[in-house]
Amino acid sequence: MMTMTLRRSAGVGTLWEGETNFQVSSLFQMLSLTQGLKTTPRSCADQKPSTRNTLVRESTKMEFQLAGMFFSQDYSSDWSPKDTVRRMQRGKVCSLERFRSLQDKLVLLDEAVAGHDGNIITAVLIFLKRTLRKEILFQELEVRQVALCHLIHFLKETSEQKLLLDLLRFLDRTEEVALSQYREHLNIQDVEKRREFLKGCIGLPFSAEDTSHVQDHYTLLERQIIIEANDRHLETAGQSEIFRKYPRKASILNMPLVTTLFYSCFYHYTEAEGTFSSPTNLKKTFKIPDKQYVLTALAARAKLRAWNDVDALFTTKNWLGYTKKKAPIGFHRVVEILQRNNAPVQVLQEYVRLVEDVETQLNLATKYKCHDVVIDTYRDLKDRIQLAAYRCKVERGSAEEEKIDSILNNTQIRWKN
């Protein structure tokens, strides 16, 4: 049995969707009967031309009659809007062109909404969009919020920006108009044109929060253009050791703020705050939180294995001049980032010791083979059993094994077990 799959063709009045197995197969079965009348068998080859012509005319007439029987069922123009929607829900072929008056079209839309089928609602909206003036369509949709939401979504998905903006302006949804215009920057490839476009977006009627974001976006791109031009010159001229040692893999243009900060911490970490490419300048200009700044700077300096910079990042000095280590992201995260960047054990151990929670400290020290931290912690906990068990995990004859033996033989320690 032959199956014909009919799909919706967007933007036209006739909707093709679903399968019409019975009708199509029946039609082809009936039409196959007429083909026998058209075929001239050898036994009839000697018939008179007039006889053969009569047979052909009769078969052709039968074809039209059969086709009429079939198509009169599926292309009837007498369906009501409700019947039309029901047929569409069953995947039948339906022509919407018969609905010519505004009233009929609106009833059809209301029936589609009542059917709770998003595809059918969208299909009817496509038909209305094509056959109604936009002012009338907008006015009627204003009191039909479900259909309105479907149309807005459809226009966004199909990038019909002009009609979408006209609709949002009609609805007086000024912030959405501004956001929709702002999104247009994604389609601008030329960086100078994008910068000018973003500059023009600053005056659009955004909310206070969105205005701040758009201003930051413009400022960031402006900053990136300056940094990119300068760094490209340094890299080409070979005047900077870090660019010679670590060539850039991509342009900084149009990158997110966090990526720009990482780039700045990687290539321009020691620059004075007055320069556009300085990490501290970026932090101040864009009000980057301490946690985000420390996390990004740590990742960049650890990648370069600049352990002194890492140490300075967490060293603070009080008003008496005393220094201490402080990490707004928690030292357990510092350890994990350092380990991912293959920090030596000596560096790891220093930061594992700064983890306040003893259980977390032990887990990290054991996981990353910071033996001295594990040994000292079990000693401080006076846990002889755990210390003796850990002795089996260190290399035989190593300094760590000797240290454990020395502690276990120390009679001054009052073990808890």
TrEMBL record:
Name of the protein: Spermatogenesis-defective protein 39 homolog
Keywords linked to the UniProt accession: Cytoplasmic vesicle, Endosome
Phylogenetic placement of the source organism: Eukaryota, Metazoa, Chordata, Craniata, Vertebrata
Alphabetized InterPro entries for the sequence: Spe-39, Vps16_C_sf
Protein's cellular compartments: Cytoplasmic vesicle; Early endosome; Late endosome
Domain of life according to the entry: Eukaryota
Cellular component terms (Gene Ontology): early endosome; late endosome
GO BP: intracellular protein transport; vacuolar transport
